[in-house]
Amino acid sequence: MCWIPKGDGLLDFSRTCMPAASTPPNYWPSRSRRWQPLPECSASYPALRFVAGYYRTSQTETYTEDSPGGNHDYFSKLAADWEAASTLSPDCKVRRFIVRSGVVLGRTGGMIKQVYPPFFMGLGGPIGSGNQFFPWIHIEDIAGIFVHGVESDKVHGVLNGVAPQIITNKEFTQALARAMWRPALIPLPALAVDLVFGKERATMMLEGQRVIPKRTLESGYEYVYPDIKDACKECAHLIIDSDEH
């Protein structure tokens, strides 16, 4: 959680990366408590914003910001709880927006940092069948959406923090492998994903979601990296430069 300079707003990056070994009950109390002071302080800051989000995994549905939030498993209920806890009183003159983030791609952490070693050794490959949808966004764009939301008084409600290009996990794998000049022929079996990450997270990774940023685009945000090939090239280029230095 961080304050925008000069008291103009507040951001809470609620959807942080959860260690694979952690069990779900560790997260609910700590996340809910983070929000408790916000209603009390909000009246003094007429531009508070909040961040959270989640959708049901599906191979057939298409989700926009107007789609109902999921309440089907632990993580979706947790995300719904984060969003509900940020609700302010009807008479409060505070503008609030929520960013529901996809998989953030950047060289300093997250998925790229996790998959870089096996991909570098030529051992990368799709997760499971690779046919599941892969809602993604470059780190510059997720940061750009935050800034866009803070600076534009027209932004409110939910924004999907995903790239406009809909791809599968297999297509992401191919783009990253080509950007790194490496093969990607060794898939990670579903059973291994389940054993390593646990059933709840494995379901998210193996089934995926088709999410489009309808309202994000309508709000006027212009993506820096709307194409997965360019995003992966930028990430791989920075990783290689960092390793060489």
Instruction: State the strand order across the main sheet.
Output: 1-2
Question: Helix/strand-derived class?
Answer: alpha/beta
Relative strand content: 5-15%
Please state the average pLDDT score: 77
Dominant shape:
globular
The biggest beta sheet reads:
2 strands, antiparallel
What's the helix count? Answer: 10
Q: For the record, give the distance between the C-alpha atoms at the N and C termini, rounded to a whole number.
A: 32 Å
Rg, nearest Å: 18 Å
User: H/E order of the elements?
Assistant: EEHHEHEEHEHEHHHEHH
Pfam families: DUF1731
Organism: Larinioides sclopetarius
InterPro entries: DUF1731, NAD(P)-bd_dom_sf
Domain DUF1731: 188-234
What does this entry show, briefly?
This protein is 40% helix and 11% strand. It is built from ten helices and eight strands.
Outline the fold blueprint.
Elements: E1 2-4, E2 9-11, H1 28-35, H2 38-41, E3 62-63, H3 74-85, E4 97-101, E5 103-106, H4 110-120, E6 136-138, H5 139-151, E7 157-161, H6 169-179, H7 190-197, H8 199-207, E8 210-211, H9 214-218, H10 228-244
Parallel strand pairs: 3-8, 4-7, 5-6
Antiparallel strand pairs: 1-2
Helix pairs in contact: 1-3, 6-10, 7-8
